[in-house]
Specification:
2 domains; Porin; 22 strands; 18-stranded antiparallel beta barrel
């Protein structure tokens, strides 16, 4: 005798296989800025025009499998620039297995992407072509409004016995990572709160000599409220411990953001980010040299977050570093809006005022003003095109700290085609 439930049992025995194809093509034009060779070499200083245009490609082939309470995913990835020597890079972006019990406990092991809260501290950073993934063990519980995750990572370069304890130039900058994340959604209220603790081990010393692992900690909270007419969020994080060279760390950051959506056709948002900086940050004029002794690091590091979502689309801050290795911090005040003319089209615009967090020697704290425009159109659920334009008027401070042209203007434009069809689902 065959019962109707046998069909479901047969389906569970075979599981579900899904294969997607993701292809992204992005063209960029960057214009404006003067890079002085005086800042990067000992030769006589000359000025070189900062201008570039290129096309980026990224291809992923996510393969997912589900059977009963088992999930597995494998994602090979290729990324590179058109015409690049070496044909770009090919790697395994994801490779993990996850098992979930009926009580809500789970374990996930392998190379995986992480996304917590607004992705300011931990996120996939998908704007970057290679993205961010981690080799680790994740265990936790999710249920009844509670989510608790424990992340454990231990990185190594090789399995050699001789010299096998020294870690450098790997897929992640850390040697070890221990992270606890807890989130609670308040019953009957659009309110959620998270707590985050990270203990990151950075490898110090040099290969062939005695090495040690220096540990730095990050602790903080993220709170969000999502009523029907918009959303409000805020966060605070503090860093402590030591960097890989043994220097003490004492840094912090805070941010608030409010979004109001009066209707389904538009929304308005505003916010403020503050990231602490190193005191007595020296800004030398051309031809000047000088050193300042720092007893501790007070410039906040945004760790492994999706950096492009914050601090301006031109990525001048917390993606590239300052020439002397320290940071003056950042204040980012912004306001913007998004319009939805129809279900397929999205248009947005924003304004940013940026300044350093610490007082600078011989110059003002204001970095500049930026205007950013963007749009996205979805031809099909699996085909979309997006683009944007950013314009920044930099000050003398911006010119000294980073890059700025003689007239203080910086321009960046991009256009992206994203094709991501599902090719197998059974």
């Amino acid at each position: 005798m065959v019962y109707a439930s046998d069909g479901c049992a047969q389906e569970e025995r075979h599981g579900h296989l899904t294969v997607d194809l993701q292809m992204l093509f992005q063209g960029e034009i960057r214009d404006g800025g003067i890079v002085s060779t005086e800042d990067v070499s000992d030769t006589e200083g000359t000025e070189v025009e900062d201008h570039s245009s290129f096309i980026i490609e990224r291809s992923r082939l996510p393969v997912s499998y589900q059977r009963e309470r088992l999930e597995m995913k494998l994602t090979p990835q290729h990324s590179g620039i058109w015409g690049q020597s070496g044909r770009g890079s090919f790697n395994l972006y994801e490779a993990w297995a996850k098992y979930t019990t009926t009580a809500g406990f789970f374990g996930q092991i392998g190379r995986q992407t992480l996304s917590y809260d607004d992705e300011r501290i931990i996120g996939p950073n998908d704007w970057a072509m290679a993205g961010i993934s981690h080799d680790l063990l994740k265990v936790g519980y999710e249920g009844h409004g509670h989510k608790a995750h424990l992340l454990l990572a231990y990185n190594q370069n090789s399995e050699n016995v001789n010299g096998g304890t020294y870690y450098t130039d790997g897929s992640q900058p850390y040697k070890t990572m221990h992270t606890v994340w807890y989130h609670y959604d308040v019953p009957k209220l659009p309110l959620g709160a998270s707590l985050l603790f990270m203990n990151i081990g950075m490898q110090g010393g040099e290969e062939g000599s005695p090495v040690c692992t220096q540990y730095q900690q990050l602790v903080g909270t993220y709170i969000s409220c999502n009523p029907t007419f918009g959303s409000f969020s805020g966060c605070y994080y503090r860093q402590m411990g030591h960097d890989e060279f043994g220097m003490e760390i004492d840094a912090w950051m805070a941010a608030v953001k409010a979004t109001v959506k009066p209707s389904d056709t538009y929304k308005v948002e505003a916010g403020f980010d503050y990231l602490s900086g190193d005191p007595y940050f020296a800004v030398h004029r051309k031809g000047e040299n000088g050193l300042i002794w720092h007893k501790k690091i007070q410039g906040f590091s945004s760790i492994y977050g999706s950096h492009h979502k914050f601090y301006g689309a031109m990525d001048f801050f917390y993606v590239s570093t300052y020439f002397n290795g320290f940071s003056p911090g950042l204040q980012n005040a912004y306001i913007g809006g998004t319009v939805y003319p129809n279900k397929k089209l999205t248009v947005n615009a924003s304004y940013h005022y940026m300044a350093t967090a610490t007082n600078l020697n011989n110059t003002d704290m204001t970095l500049g003003h930026a205007i950013e425009l963007g749009a996205e159109y979805n031809f099909k659920p699996y085909i979309s095109i997006s683009g944007g334009f950013s314009y920044m008027t930099g000050t003398e401070t911006m010119e000294k700290l980073k890059r700025a042209s003689s007239d203080g203007s910086l321009r960046w434009a991009w256009l992206t085609l994203h094709v991501k069809p599902n090719i197998i689902k059974k």
